Amino acid sequence: MNDVNLSIVIPVYNSEKTIAALVNKVNDELAPMVKQVEFVLVNDGSQDNSHDVIVELSRQYATSMRYIQLFRNFGEHNAVMCALNNMTGDCAVIIDDDFQNPPKEIIKLVKTLYEDQVDVVYSYYEQKKHSLFRNWGSRFNGFVAQVILKKPKGLYLSSFKALSKELIDIIIQYQGPYPYVDALVLRSTQSIGRSLCQHNERETGRSNYNLRRLIRLWLNMFIGFSVWPLRLMAIAGVSLSLLAFLMVIYFILARLMGPFIFMQDIPPGWASTISLITLFFGLHFLSMAILGEYIGRLVLTINKEPQYLIRKKYPLKSKKNDGSNI
Predict the structure, then answer these.
(1) Is 315 among the domain residues?
(2) Which domain holds residue 241?
(3) Helix/strand/coil for 258
């Protein structure tokens, strides 16, 4: 590990009470073990005093820290993409700013990355210390990722992970406004490792993930990286059309052969009305899905909404992007 230039990526949001201690602890743990530690901190529109704290840190770590301040809150994955575009290390470890992942565990991920010669190493835990709501949301996202993104069964998509430089160079080619880092990983490589890590209770404050943020993350995965929802609409349209056709056959036979079960008390005209409504709804969903397939692909291709917008960098230099990523 002594020849590794390691980038530590930290998306920051309202972390004035933890970020300084986290950076200092990471540096203490890693400085003796790797060639160089580079910190890449992205302030994702924090509303507290995080900016001033990080500016002071950037003075303390003037030769080893890149601090990027965004114009507003774009989301954790957008902030991570910004950091990956501005790192210079041989590999990167992404770690949250809440201190729930002990800095001493970082070296485990890096060792597994190099020893197993994989592109990415995800941490996993014997027992997670998140809230019940957060754990439920993670399980649901994992299930959706397994169905839509073909996530390997048993793989936990942790935010605490190590990525190779080769994989990072592929991931940052994505320029869309709604990135989901794990989806970009899963669509780029099957060379995935796992490392058992410790997970601690949150030291201060509460998780920034609420229902709205979890839904947004799910939608990014569900819609941004798959046309599966549109195909589901097509299946629903075909199914409703088939149901309407069977109902028409049923009512015709009932008219010719006499009323069947459930038909005795039906008023005249009801059967034909329900059949036509069901048929038209089925055709409507089917046509919407076909149009949506085309429109969705066009939107994903030509949408120029910014992925992130950089207000300022400390120091004022960058490896790849000099401003916004659009």
Answers:
(1) no
(2) 228-302
(3) coil
Separation of alpha carbons 161 and 179, rounded Å? 17
CA distance 68 to 203: 25
Q: Are residues 139 and 9 in the same domain?
A: yes
For 199-229, the pLDDT digits (tens) are: 877 666 666 666 677 777 777 777 767 777 7
Nearest 5 degrees, angle CA 3-CA 6-CA 9? 180
The model carries a pTM of 0.76
Tokens of 285: 């969903």
Q: Are residues 27 and 107 in the same domain?
A: yes
Rounded to whole angstroms, the Cα distance separating 180 from 192 reads 17
The three-point CA angle 33-159-55 to 5° equals: 65
Query: Given the DSSP bridges, would you call strands 5-12 and 91-94 parallel, antiparallel or unpaired?
Result: parallel
Q: By the 8 A CB rule, do 167 and 119 touch?
A: yes
Helix (H), strand (E) at residue 65: strand 65-70
How far apart are the C-alpha atoms of 100 and 198, rounded to whole Å? 9
